[in-house]
Amino acid sequence: MSANSPIGPVVGMVGAGQLARMTQQSAIALGVELRVLANTSDESAARVIVDTRLGDYRELADLREFATGCHAITFDHEHVPTEHIRALAAEGYAVRPGADALVHAQDKAVMRERLTSFGAPCPAWARVSGLEDVSAFAAEHGWPVVLKAIRGGYDGRGVWVCRTPAEVAEALSSGVPMMVEAFVPFERELAVLVARSPHGQGVSYPVVETVQQDGICVEVLAPAPGLDPEEAAEAQRIALQIAHELGVTGLLAVEMFQTADGLLVNELAMRPHNSGHWTIDGSRTSQFEQHLRAVLDLPLGSPSMSAPVVVMANLLGGDDPDLFKRYEHVMAHDPGIKLHFYGKEVRPGRKIGHVTAVGDDLETVRARARHAAVYLTTGEYT
After folding, report:
1. In 3-state terms, what secondary structure has residue 378?
2. What is d(CA 8, CA 69) in angstroms, rounded to the nearest whole number?
C-alpha cells in the first residue's frame, strides 16, 4: 500500500463549500477518506482536504473521473444535472441521494407535485407561464402572491413577493421558469432535519426555529421554543414521511411554516443544512457525521441534544475583513462560545462562519450567541 492509499471507505462529495469543509471534521473521526470536487483550489473545503479534485460538476466526464474509487458519491449542493446523476448510477456508482430523490430539491414544481400527491401539507401553488396565469391565481387565492424560480434559487434569491400585477410583470421579466404560491401569513419558520439510510433506518433531530433576515437565516434556536410537543412530533413525522416517500439517502432538511392552522412545507434540501450547524456542538451526533453514516449505510447515530438549549448564529461578512483581531475579546468574554469559520473571503452579507452557545436558559444562551456574532462581524457590543 502506498503512503497515499486510502485506509478507510472513500466518500466523494461534489462541491467544496463550507458544508464539505465541516464534513471533513467528522470524516477524520470516523476514519472516512473524504474526496471533494472543487471548481478552484481556493474554495472553502479545498483549503483543508487533501484529496481535492478540480473539475466541473456540470460535465459528466469530470464527475465520472471524480467518482472512480469512491464507495459513495454525495453532494454539498443541489446543482449537479439530474441526467448526470442518473448516468453515474447506471454505471454502478453508489450515488446518495439518487436522482429520483434529489430532483425534488432541484425543481420546486416537481417537489410540490410529489408532496401534494401523498398529502404533505403545502401552500396553494401552480405553474405559471405569464401574467394572466398569475392574475388568475391571485383572483382565487388573493394578493400578495409569491413567485419562485423553479430551479436555482436559495437564500432568498429567486423568490419575489408580489403585491400588484406590475410587480409580477417585473419578476417575470427575468425569463426563468416560474411557479406561484399563495402568500402564507406564518407565525414563524421551523426546520426539521432527518436522516435516512439505504436500508431504511431513519432518525429525526429536534425541531428548530430559524430566524430569517433579508431572506438569509441568521439564527437557529434548538429546540424551537414553546412548540407544542404534539406539533413537534407532527413536524418530525412529516419530515420522516417525506424522506421515505422520496427515497432519500442521507440528510433531508424540511423547512416549514408554522401557521395558525398548522404546519406547511416550504422548502427541501438533501444535504447538510444551515439549520443543522448547531449539531456540531449541541448534539451527540452532528449532522455531518450523520450524513456520512447514512451514505455509507452505517447505523445512524443518536440525534439527542447535549444541552437543554442550543443557539447557532450565522456570521455574515461586514466592512472589516480582519475578524481575527476580535477573537481575543469573544474568547475572553465567553469561553463557552464555539467558533466555526469557513475559510472564505469576507464580503458584506456573505456567510463566513457561525458561532454556537449552549446552556439551560434560552434568553441567556441567545444573548451570548448574538453578542459573539455581532462583535466578530462589526466590532460593536450588543
Report:
1. helix
2. 12
Q: CA-CA distance, 213 to 149, in Å (whole number)? A: 20
Backbone angles phi, psi at 18, to 5 degrees: -70, -25
Q: What is the pLDDT of residues 250-289, one digit of tens each?
A: 999 999 999 999 999 999 999 999 999 999 999 999 999 9
CB 288 within 8 A of CB 251: no
**247 neighbors 100 (Cβ within 8 angstroms):** yes
Cα separation, 292 vs 288, in Å, equals 6
Q: What are the mean pLDDT values of the chain's consecutive 10-residue runs (382 residues total)?
A: 70 98 97 97 97 98 98 96 97 98 97 98 97 97 96 76 96 93 97 97 98 91 98 98 98 98 97 98 98 98 98 91 87 96 91 97 98 90 70
Report H helices in 149-260. Answer: 165-172, 229-246
pTM: predicted TM-score of the whole model, two decimal places: 0.95
117: DSSP letter: H
The one-character DSSP state at 225 is T
Rounded CA-CA distance 201/285 in Å is: 15
Q: What does the radius of gyration of the chain's CA atoms come to, in whole angstroms?
A: 21
240-250 in b/e form (b: 16+ CB < 10 A) is bbbbebbebbb
Q: What are phi and psi of 183, to 5 degrees?
A: -70, 130
pLDDT one-digit tens code per residue, 326-341 = 989 999 999 999 999 9
* Model pLDDT, residue 341: 95
Q: What distance in Å separates the CA atoms of residue 193 and residue 286, rounded to the nearest whole number? A: 11
Q: Which residue has the cell 475578524?
A: 323
- Residues ≥6 apart with Cβ < 8 Å to 180: 125, 126, 128, 133, 134, 137, 145, 146, 147, 148
Count of alpha carbons within 13 angstroms of residue 65, beta-carbon side: 12
Buried b (16+ CB within 10 A) or exposed e, 113-143: ebbeeeebbbbbbbebeeeebbeebbeebee
> In 266-355, which residue ranges form alpha helices assigned H by DSSP?
279-282, 287-295, 327-333
